[in-house]
């Protein structure tokens, strides 16, 4: 799910891949080989970094966010869905067919519990039968989006990126969101159509905070009527009027209705003067006073929009009733998780050479440094030949170099041993 990961993180996955030479033989520069490896490593580190790859995460209870997998060997479609942690994916399901679920929030590892008929967890066999707090969806069977398709989808020829909804955590095709998504670099998080319907309190916020989108008049994708209009409020109203879909009136009603919602649902009478107590100030009510529309589309949000959501008593109660308390938590974002993964490992990994050196005795240190210098000199010499000839270094060339270096090293080591004994 590399594409999707990149899209959700708001990063540009680049795509292109650096094929500059003849079409039959792609050539890459050394810098590109190294950069590509680093890029892949960085991405893997970001997704997996925050998760423990040695200990089953079950002991931590419902982990705030972790990399998660589903095993179609152990729990194929038709069986109860189950999710397993990163460490279990290596230790207990290493040879099985796994669906990578990217990251999910508030999940307890299921490995070896009652959902598994023939498998005992090797890392933490003592688990309760069922983790009642876990939420499952079709992702656990390898199916995504409202169209319930696998990813990658062998029958899908339309290039499209998958975007994760931050509320339900399902993944969606960009073309199945009811609007044309903004460029992946222009938004941070997405809330899908279904979740926007369920959490309709987000619409007044959307009018003020969300990233503008191109309007697709109809959610039936094949109608294909896309208006190339940046959606300012006036323009949207214009469009709706022209097409006989004037939602403005309806929204005024909804506005009134929603205004009373938090207090009515709490069973008490509507507080007469809200401003009496400063702590009672509600940003949502403030936003509801301004014009807004409810649409049947997903919404796209910029970074740190979550911190702008109201945290008054009534709103917090509403979040918990809707089971979306995480929305006010900036640390719940995938980005925060990825940053944690990256920085955790960076402190872990400072400088592998220096770390290794400090744990060695003097003789070992000298040997290692000699070997490192050998490698550097030989690689530089090897690459200079290409530079002199003006030819491009191919992937195979680098591979060949390391193979030859290894065998030279082996010969050297063998000779040493012979010499020493
Ligand atoms: Zn586990
Ligand atoms: Zn398995
Ligand atoms: Zn396990
Ligand atoms: Zn779809
Ligand atoms: Zn959703
Ligand atoms: Zn509020």
UniProtKB/TrEMBL annotation:
PROSITE patterns: ZF_UBR
Catalytic activity: S-ubiquitinyl-[E2 ubiquitin-conjugating enzyme]-L-cysteine + [acceptor protein]-L-lysine = [E2 ubiquitin-conjugating enzyme]-L-cysteine + N(6)-ubiquitinyl-[acceptor protein]-L-lysine
SMART domains xref list: ZnF_UBR1
Compositionally skewed regions (Gly residues) per UniProt: 11-20
Zinc finger (UBR-type): 54-126
Comp. bias regions, Low complexity: 1-10
Name of one Pfam family that matches: zf-UBR
InterPro entries: UBR7, UBR7-like_UBR-box, Znf_FYVE_PHD, Znf_RING/FYVE/PHD, Znf_UBR
GO cellular component, one term: cytoplasm
EC number: 2.3.2.27
Domain UBR-type: 54-126
Function: E3 ubiquitin-protein ligase which is a component of the N-end rule pathway. Recognizes and binds to proteins bearing specific N-terminal residues that are destabilizing according to the N-end rule, leading to their ubiquitination and subsequent degradation.
Protein name per its UniProtKB record: Putative E3 ubiquitin-protein ligase UBR7
Native organism: Alligator mississippiensis
Taxonomic classification: Eukaryota, Metazoa, Chordata, Craniata, Vertebrata
Gene responsible for this protein: UBR7
